[in-house]
Specification:
This protein is an alpha+beta fold. It folds into two domains: about 150 residues, Transferase(Phosphotransferase) domain 1 (Transferase(Phosphotransferase), domain 1, Orthogonal Bundle), CATH 1.10.510; about 80 residues, Immunoglobulin-like (Sandwich). Helix 3 packs antiparallel against helix 5 and helix 4 runs antiparallel to helix 5. It is elongated, with a radius of gyration of 23 Å.
Length: about 300
């Protein structure tokens, strides 16, 4: 394959097929998937999404090939974090037909289109379903249906902390979530073609490569989360597992504003106990910090500060 985002080359010599694989130094995309608060910056994630789309368009439009096993493990990242689609062991050439039926399905649960999983039906829309799941992976680090406002707030928290605001970042996040939602429709007819997805992404930028700021949404209309009023460190708590032992974890709250902020400590389950004073209702002093101990009373799962 002679396209930047397709990483393997198939050569036919003496009636035998040889696969030549480029050495990819950064490993698979799976190794780089995290939630919004850590890991790859948004620009890298967005360019990865666009690169995967470009590679998929090459396979669909130029080679008439359905990958059939598109997932993060089969997308490798090079030194420049350019994604390359690999592993065509179960791929199918459609020979100009719109869909085919195959037996002996090889599936990757979570990424496999339902019509292929249950009926063995293969089409370009099968890859589109897998692409939608991968986009959700990249935008949120999770596979459940994303709540756009929550995802945007988490990205805004990260951008505020780093003081870096990617051009059109909010709009790109929103657009990617919307595209992914259409891609993972159980009805293949409702999924977009790869050319439609690329066109939608390209519309966010001008034709000469310069970002068009005119469409940047007014994000201030979305009310802030508590962690945007108070700086919370860390935002996610992890407790080591020790049975029948109360394990404390320190949570630091900082008020950078010139006003008092009242807050209430609420935990997601009874096994987490916030402690600072006898009351949970507290006030963050102006331009000061306060500390709380969040204790785990049973197991070692993670707790989100609220």
């Amino acid at each position: 394959m002679d396209q930047e985002n397709v990483g393997s080359i198939c050569i036919r010599r003496l009636e035998k097929d040889y696969s030549v694989f480029e050495y990819i130094s950064k490993g698979s995309l799976h190794n780089h998937l995290t939630d919004e608060l850590r890991g790859l910056e948004w620009h890298t994630r967005y360019q990865t999404i666009k690169g995967i789309c470009d590679g998929l368009q090459y396979l669909h439009k130029e080679k008439d090939v359905v990958h059939m096993d598109l997932k993060p493990h089969n997308i490798l990242m090079d030194d420049l974090m350019i994604p390359k689609i690999t592993d065509f062991g179960v791929s199918k050439h459609l020979d100009g037909i719109s869909q085919a039926v195959t037996g002996g399905c090889h599936v990757s649960l979570g990424y496999c289109a339902p019509e292929y999983l249950h009926r063995g039906q293969v089409s370009f829309k099968s890859d589109i379903f897998s692409l939608g799941v991968i986009i959700i992976d990249l935008v949120t680090g999770r596979k459940e249906d994303p709540d756009t406002k929550i995802v945007l707030r988490r990205w805004r928290y990260r951008w505020n902390r780093s003081a870096t605001y990617p051009p059109l970042g909010y709009q790109q996040v929103t657009e990617c979530i919307e595209i992914a939602a259409r891609c993972v429709s159980h009805d293949p007819k409702k999924r977009p073609y790869i050319s439609d997805i690329i066109r939608q992404l390209d519309e966010l930028e001008s034709t000469n490569g310069h970002v068009n700021y005119a469409n940047e949404p007014t994000f201030s209309l979305i009310s802030p989360y508590p962690w945007e009023l108070l700086d919370i460190d860390p935002l996610e708590l992890h407790f080591p597992f020790e049975a029948n032992k109360q394990i404390p974890c320190l949570l630091q709250l900082s008020n950078p504003r010139d006003d008092y902020i009242a807050f209430y400590m609420q935990t997601s389950s009874g096994q987490y106990v916030p402690r600072r004073t006898k009351q949970r209702n507290c006030t963050a002093p102006i331009q000061e910090q306060c500390h709380h101990n969040i204790s785990s009373t049973e197991d070692g799962t993670a707790s989100h500060a609220e």
